[in-house]
Amino acid sequence: MKSLHTLALLAAALSLSACGGDKTHDARLAKAGPNPSLAALMKVADARIGDRKAASCKACHTFDAGAPDMAGPNLHGVYGQPMGRNRPGFGYSAALRDAGGKWDDATLDAWLKNPKAVVPGTAMMFGGIADPLNRADVIAYLRSQGR
């Protein structure tokens, strides 16, 4: 079962790398400026595009209020919440529960880039999103959900 989970995550990561048909990516990236900061990327990020880019995350997570947890917790309303505590009934790894911090722009950006670098020992089996604007779009989507 674990190998199926790993294959599903690998397929999801590969599909995310295709940018989800984002025809505005390069123009938005140029608008953010050369070597853009996370703040500059967030100014051009698009929550609707982030929703599409988060489609690969839906292999393990739900995003709708009231939806059940899956292999990963429901991520609705996670933005601004303490790490490893958003869904009290979910079995977070001890590493994530004990990590401290909250899901803000900087933490989510680092997490979406490489979860294991942010929280060594996390159970999250996801290789990360290399493109910084793709990460910013997903963060904008998570921000848009509120509590």
From TrEMBL:
Keywords: Electron transport, Heme, Iron, Metal-binding, Signal, Transport. It comes from the Bacteria. Residues 1-20 form the signal peptide. The keyword ATP-binding does not apply. Gene3D superfamilies: Cytochrome c-like domain. Residues 45-146 form the Cytochrome c domain. The keyword Iron applies. InterPro entries: Cyt_c-like_dom, Cyt_c-like_dom_sf, Cyt_c_1A/1B. This is C-type cytochrome.
